[in-house]
Amino acid sequence: MVRNPYASVSRSMTADPGNASPYPHLFAPLDLGFTSLRNRVLMGSMHTGLEDRKRDFPKLAAYFAERAEGGVALIVTGGFAPNFEGWLTPFASRLAWPWEARKHRQVTGAVHAHGARICLQLLHAGRYAYHPMAVAPSRIKSPITPFTPRELGARGVERTIDAYANAAKLARDGGYDGVEVMGSEGYLINQFLSARTNRRTDRWGGDTASRMRFAVEIVRRVREACGPDFIIVYRLSMLELVPDGSDWNEVVQQARAIEAAGATIINTGIGWHESRVPTIATSVPRAAFAGVTAKLRPHVSLPLVATNRINMPDVAERILARGDVDMVSMARPLLADPQWVAKARAGRPEAINTCIACNQACLDHVFQRRTASCLVNPRACAETELNYLPTTTRKRIAVVGAGPAGLACATIAAQRGHDVVLFERDARIGGQFNLARIIPGKEEFGETLRWFQHRIVETGVQLRLSTDATPELLSGFDEVVLATGVVPRRVDFAGHDHPRVVGYLDVLHGRVVPGRRVAIVGAGGIGFDVAEFLVQTAPSPTLDVEEWMREWGVDPAFESAGGLRPPRVSPPQREVWLLQRSPGRPGARLGKTTGWIHRATLKHKGVRMIGGVEYVAVDDAGFHVRVDGQPQVLPVDHVVVCAGQEPLRALRAPLEAAGCRVHLVGGADVAAELDAKRAIAQASRLAAAL
Ligand code: NAP
Ligand code: SF4
């Protein structure tokens, strides 16, 4: 093994004796030789959209400063291209000129003021670029972008390597402690490494050693340009999850060469963006891929970082305590809670606002070219504008409904110093999240309710469960917030009152156990959820890594090319038809980064997803429908109605008539767009303004 001359690292994972945290391995410092990290938490790179415009840099600085103040040891920024060809999208983030480096000082200064270190990520999109200047090792279009890249000539390759070294030097000038070289996820470096995208016959293509020359040269020249006391994190593609991806021998060969070239730390990359295996969605078991990083441990001596779906301190501590890895990377969990590290250190995991891996406000936003935020923390990336400041006028506030919107509004208003009473008709808090949490693969939604339960106590909200809020009960409050949610929409086709026709609430609450053959009316978010509920076997594969890997075709030994093997899907519990009236593919409106996972899951389970359906009638023979004008009878035992929602706001008129100040939030306001992201954000902004 070739030792890295720059990383004279003390990796010994002895728990910090002076640290009373229940997570001693998480809080042991990490000595990198020339510098030291205060604990084992790396804030992983995530593009937020704030990197792209100079005017947003104060917001970017505030966003990172809060995470640094919260105790993170090392932050990695979102990706910056080393030249314009490497842009993800036209005019996206780039670091290529001295004047571009200067503006970074406000970011690095803000982070250093709180004792954390920060690396800038160098990311060249290669053929994943969303613009016509895209370049790649070979002229092979990616399946996820519309542009065919130009093949880099030999001089172009050299110029690109120089651009990396130049950008790293500029990062140093901008005050960064280092860079992360993005060598995974299918971006340019990864495209050179893989025979699937590199068909070159010159010294940059051919056998494994030639294909990895580009990556190695970049690390070598970055080290040369920036000197020995500069952190180089290399994000190594350890499990590609694409056909013809690297096998394990190639991964080890790359890791050793990267270490010898002068990297300080190796971070883990899992999957390419075009992989058809989910890698970070909520249905991926926690820490499902930590074993990949651990498998590399015997082969290199520099610190290794485990990543993907590590969202709570006990998970991180377990991985670190085994001694297989040296740090854990988290990006989204720190969007969800900037105080994650401080709370873990204080032994208060129940106070952590857990990332539920929904992607709805972070990655989905980025893919829509909107600024990232967080479903459970709308302040993420809005730190300069959304603040929950103490009130100067204490009011009596009633919040009706303890679903996500009501919970957010009540707890923030109480945190600000208002006197808040939260009324809930049910015997427990949670609203729609109580349904979400019982869907296989959405168990994480329960964490948000655990957090809100903690916040109710912490902020002093007076919770009145099993209480119908009447106008009389609500009189005397200065403000009334109606977060009363929704009722399921009724359908009106013939036989809608037949005993075979049931609502999704009956099914999810267990009041009706559907038969072997079921049709679902409505293929929105709830229709998909109900379909997954009906076909999945218990327990949910999300709770069993081996079963999950079997279902998605991941080689549990991580040996095969791309780490793939044929999936073995357990048979569905039921035969299901998922129907919608609109023409086209059901599920087209689901989240950008997760919709394909829901569609694939149902396809694997043999669910028939049909658009353009006309509902005719339900009778003892089954469900009579017309598809493309052709009559059919679906021989089903039950028809489950998931036809959307209507707002529930009957209290509004009498309260307004009585002169109350009434506010509507969440589904009670706009049921058509009922979704938790909108509901929590709207309720939080209202609470900030009350
Ligand atoms: P939705 O997304 O609005 O879908 C309602 C479905 O019912 C549509 O497929 C619609 O399709 C159908 N429909 C509407 N009116 C109908 C009628 N009169 N008769 C028969 N069918 C009718 O509502 P949802 O599924 O209840 O979801 C509500 C919200 O929850 C979503 O907006 C989503 O944000 C959120 N959610 C998301 C997820 C997720 O992303 N996985 C999961 C759960 C909930 P046609 O009109 O074409 O028939
Ligand atoms: Fe996590 Fe969802 Fe927030 Fe993204 S939006 S950080 S996935 S909770």
Description:
The strands form seven sheets. An eight-stranded parallel β-barrel has the order 3-4-5-8-9-10-11-12, surrounded by seven helices. Strands 15-14-13-16-27 form a five-stranded parallel sheet. A five-stranded parallel sheet has the order 18-25-19-20-21. α19 runs parallel beside α21 (595-604). Mean pLDDT is 94; it is low at 1-10. It has 690 residues and is an alpha/beta fold. The site of iron/sulfur cluster has 14 residues, from α11.
- What sort of overall outline do the alpha carbons produce when their principal axes are compared? globular
* Proportion of residues in β-strands: 15-25%
Low-confidence parts, pLDDT < 50 over ≥5 residues?
Answer: 1-10
The radius of gyration computed from the alpha-carbon positions, rounded to a whole number of angstroms, is 26 Å
Structural class determined from secondary elements = alpha/beta
**Distance between the amino and carboxyl termini:** 63 Å
Question: What's the helix and strand layout?
Answer:
Blueprint: E1 30-31, E2 36-37, E3 41-43, H1 57-69, E4 74-80, H2 98-102, H3 105-112, E5 117-122, E6 135-136, E7 150-151, H4 154-173, E8 178-183, H5 188-193, H6 208-211, H7 213-226, E9 231-239, H8 248-261, E10 265-270, H9 290-296, E11 304-306, H10 313-321, E12 327-330, H11 332-336, H12 340-345, H13 363-367, E13 396-400, H14 404-415, E14 419-423, H15 432-436, H16 445-459, E15 462-464, H17 471-474, E16 479-482, E17 486-488, E18 501-503, H18 504-508, E19 517-521, H19 525-535, H20 545-552, E20 575-579, H21 595-604, E21 608-610, E22 613-619, E23 622-627, E24 630-634, E25 638-641, E26 645-647, H22 652-657, E27 662-664, H23 676-689
Parallel strand pairs: 3-4, 3-12, 4-5, 5-8, 6-7, 8-9, 9-10, 10-11, 11-12, 13-14, 13-16, 14-15, 16-27, 18-25, 19-20, 19-25, 20-21
Antiparallel strand pairs: 1-2, 17-26, 22-23, 23-24
Bound molecules: NADP nicotinamide-adenine-dinucleotide phosphate (NAP) and iron/sulfur cluster.
The site of NADP nicotinamide-adenine-dinucleotide phosphate has 23 residues, from α19.
